[in-house]
Amino acid sequence: MAPGPRSIVCIKQVPKAQELQVDPVTNTLKRVGVPSEINPPDRNALEMALQVKDQFGGEVFVLTMGPPVFTSALEEALAMGCDRAFLLTDRILGGSDTVPTAHSLSETIHKIGGYQLIFCGEETTDASTGHVGPGIAGHLDCAQITYCSEVQFLGNRVRGKRSVEDGFETWECPLPCVITANFLSNRPRPPSLSGKIRVKRGGLITTWSCADVGIDPGKVGIRNSPTIVAKVDTVVLPDRKAKIFRGEPKAAVTALLDAMAADGVLSR
Amino acid sequence: MTLPKDKTEYRGVWVFLEARRGRLRDVSRQLLGVARGLAQTRGSDVSGVLPSWNVEPLAREAIEFGADRVYLVEDPRLETYTSRPYAKVMATLIGKHKPEIVLFGASKNGRDLGGRLHAMIETGLAADCVKLEIDADGNLDMIRPSFGGKSLAHILCKQHRPQMASARPNVFPIPPRDPARKGEVVREPVEITDADLDAKVVSFEERRGHKGNPIEDAKILVAGGFGLRDPKNFRLLEDLAKELGGAVAASRKAVDAGWVPKDYQVGQTGRTVRPRVYIAVGISGAVQHLAGMQESEKIVAINLDHNAPMFEICDYGLVGDLFQVVPEMTRQLAERKARRPVPVAAR
Questions:
Q1: What's the mean pLDDT in A65-94?
Q2: Which listed residue, A149, A166, A193, B55, has the most CB atoms within 10 A of its CB?
Q3: What fold is seen in the domain A6-224?
Q4: Is any Cβ of chain B less than 8 angstroms from the Cβ of A55?
């Protein structure tokens, strides 16, 4: 039997969404001091890669790009069972949109080398684009299967069950292949005690700068990002004036449906 | 692949037309309406790009919905969407005709394609836009929700062309269809080789349960929480949802209990939904749940506990026992439907 694949999982550390507050003065989101976590869909990607390893052997590397504080996300991924971790960190990467991000991650994946599978979450909860996974496939000129809920490693190919609007498609692709894991497609394992001990011993995380990887500074950062966020408007949620019904169920339901019908909620 | 940098070489608004099982996706039709408005402001025109097989009638249809021209790329190998050959078609045609704006539906395939393509041709792509306008400088102002709908971000792509955006399905109306509208169908040969066919779609399984109606697309959702007490009670919600033409969703607690699959889950760690009507049954309304549904147009809360937070954010609340209330609602709705007079036009 062919040896198991080398998988590289790309993850991002994001602010915990429920902790985000809008600054009433500047109308922008307060990000400073907000606790962060591994982007939730990336946990599904980690679990998917670790399941491939459980079933077919091989190894799982985890990669992130960001400031040194992202080390904590890597440590957690290692404690879940990843074998090695890579941190691409460089001030010139700051402000990168999805084009330089996909470029930088691709270059780093290329430097790590020897990979058969690349996993990403379907999107991040802070930017919600879902563009980086397919962008990596575009840069590396390799196959891609997005919105995957199940993966089967077939030695020289990979099969993925892809969730689309009206059902599930099964795609089969040659290697290497980028897989984006459908959010909530599995139950990510918690970090294990032995994993945490391995992390404590150290030596599992490799830190690289753009120069270490050979990333062209003219390709990354805010100045080389095609898009900018010109401004951000705060969304004011409608103030809902609740009509409350109670009492005997039959009469209460009639009153509720009458009110909804009168407001045109049932008839459109 | 490098595209010319001179912005003035780029002209026209394009829509990627997604054919799915012999039909144009609704979002493609919706985008033709958006594209018309943008083209009018820019003084340019609208082209559709339709890669598939045996779909010439769909090209005509796109013209009737607002395209001035449809680039039709037909090849049996393009019949079913796969990433690489579709990205090749788009990149080739963009390089050849240099559109100023390219729009995609933010469907699974639209995002899969846009994500790959924008990295290949190195231009900006804004995801899941809910508003698309031309700003004072003539740039495409791509407006999209950010941070779970707490804000709207305006994205600009000032220096790179084309400016690309995907648009959230069912936000923009489908424009009126005009069978008399004139336009041209241009057949574009793009060579698809064996090397382009890396992915094979080996099977397709239609979604069971909520057939073609995942919770994010449903216009009416009946969501159940821990208050349902038992998985078999979800049948009550299914009956109500069926009567309303909607789908069933669930809170995290109901999913964690194993009562329904994970793709039913609404909330912070589940899906974000914005249906026309969201009926929360036996869901108390934890902040994490509210984050996934508070943008719903109308919210109905049904709960025995009148202190449930859901009552504070709803439009309609019913304090009562869901086991009595939900079947009663289903019954009364069916009765109303039967009673409804025949519309005048049909008499």
A1: 97
A2: B55
A3: Rossmann fold (3.40.50)
A4: no
Residues of B in Cβ contact (< 8 Å) with A156: none
Cβ proximity of B159 and B7 under 8 Å? yes
- Provide the pairing of β-strand A157-164 with A143-153: antiparallel
Cα–Cα nearest to B16, from B66, B55, B70, B53: B70
Euclidean distance between CA atoms B119 and B147, whole angstroms: 24
Q: Kindly report, residue by residue over B293-336, the tens digit of the pLDDT.
A: 988 999 999 999 999 989 989 999 999 999 999 999 999 999 99
ipTM of this complex prediction, to 2 decimal places: 0.90
Residues in A touching B205 (Cβ below 8 Å): 167-170
Angstrom distance (rounded) from CA A191 to CA A185 = 18
The rounded Cα A243 to chain-centroid distance in angstroms is 40
Chain A neighbors of B314, CB-CB under 8 A: 240, 242
Give percent helix, percent strand, percent coil of chain A, each to the nearest 5: 35, 30, 35
| Residue entry with tokens 């003219």 | A218
C-alpha angle B92-B95-B98 in degrees, rounded to nearest 5: 130
Residue B93 tokens read as 């045609």
pTM: 0.84
pLDDT for B40-52, tens place per residue?
999 999 999 999 9
Which domains are delineated in chain B? 7-196 (3.40.50.620), 220-339 (3.40.50.1220)
> Token pair of B7, please?
């912005």
SS (H, E, C) chain A: CCCCCEEEEEECEEECHHHCEECCCCCCEECCCCCEEECHHHHHHHHHHHHHHHHHCCEEEEEEECCHHHHHHHHHHHHHCCCEEEEECCHHHCCCCHHHHHHHHHHHHHHHCCCCEEEEECCCCCCCCCCHHHHHHHHHCCEEEEEEEEEEECCCEEEEEEEECCEEEEEEEECCEEEEECCCCCCCCCCCHHHHHHHHHCCCEEEECHHHHCCCHHHCCHHHCCCEEEEEEECCCCCCCCEEEECCHHHHHHHHHHHHHHCCCCCC
